[in-house]
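User:
I study polymers; will you set down one protein's sequence and backbone structure tokens?

Assistant:
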Amino acid sequence: MTKKTWRIGVAGLGTVGGGLLDFLSQRPDFAPVGDRAVITAVSARNRTRRRTTDISAIAWFDDPVALAASPDIDIFVELVGGSDGPAKAAVEAALKSGKPVVTANKALIAVHGAELAALAEAAGVPLLFEAAVMGGTPAVKMLREALVGDDISALAGILNGTCNFILSEMESKGRSFAAVLADAQALGYAEADPTTDVGGFDAAHKISILAALAFGCAPDFAAAEIEGIEAVEQLDISLAKDLGYRIRLIASTEKTADGVAVRVHPSLVAFGHPLAETRGATNALFIEGSRIGRIFLQGPGAGAGPTAAAVAADIADIMTGARRPVFQAPAALLNPFIAIAPDHRVGKAYLRLLVKDQAGVIAAVSETLAECGVSIDSFLQKPVEDAGGVPIVLTTHAVAESVLTEVIDRIERLPAVLERPRLLRIARI
């Protein structure tokens, strides 16, 4: 039987592109079908940059869009990044040219996934993005393939290794966010401009994609509620620890009769919970289904080797002829994304107040909570040096988000309260 050689065009030769180049140069026959996958054309910003694999014999394109439309490639791999610009234009060009596309670009899929799915289906070619979420840990394939026989109700996990590294280091070493961020940048865990990571946007892109796969809806990044970790203070990490919690950036989505919620927030997770024990740059995800119950995935969320392996797995699917809708249904049949209104979102919360050291403060706070119908679960008052006041921490029983907002507004106006109360959610996982 004659084996086919698949000609791969790769746009973007950074960490992941370099890892893929190295892998396919060593293992072109890796796919189960026995065919070969060979990178025959590339595009990147810097042609002369030193690389671990020689590219002198590979066709070079200055323009990734021209590479995507080239008749001399069979599969286009987009590793440029960004939701728009050259990445989007190149993927569109490849699909319109009838070429299968593999991408690791979570921003592109989270923002333009539905329209790109329609293009792919019109051309009759796959659009695959396993590497866009959790790097080498197969979260996308789990939802798109293994769990199609179940009804998924919720997902929650740690989807950004940079934030998890920072929060883990803040806890273990007692250092400030700014100091640990500087370390993360020096180690290469965080970019020079870390906003996408620490602002929660990277995790929001990923959970938006997972929500679309889990619930059969079009991805809608604009509907995600996003809060990053920039405002997490060492004081909160210490007080949360006293209450039996660790702080993690939790990306979550759930489907109810009212709609779908997609959220990214720093949240308290109880000691002993798998997400509380997930440290460093590791990613982790819980999947809740009506038939399977709970599944827990944990593994590397980034890096040249793991992410390149995920890209290679998608290439292998194309080579073996695997065909599925881009999401859980054809693009025209995807459900609209209906966000759950704040009044219908209920959960437990951590509130940290900074107050004057005077009589009657606790009574005034308790009265305000009672008037708003908020029940206290636990309470902690702990003098802290150089805090500028007395920190008071309380956790609540389940309460609507809209009620929490009202309560914080009212407590902030109390004469003895020195600053707006700090709200952190308590994870429901």
Observations:
- The first strand starts at residue 5 and ends at 11.
- The mean pLDDT is 92.
- The first helix runs from residue 15 to 26.
- The radius of gyration is 24 Å.
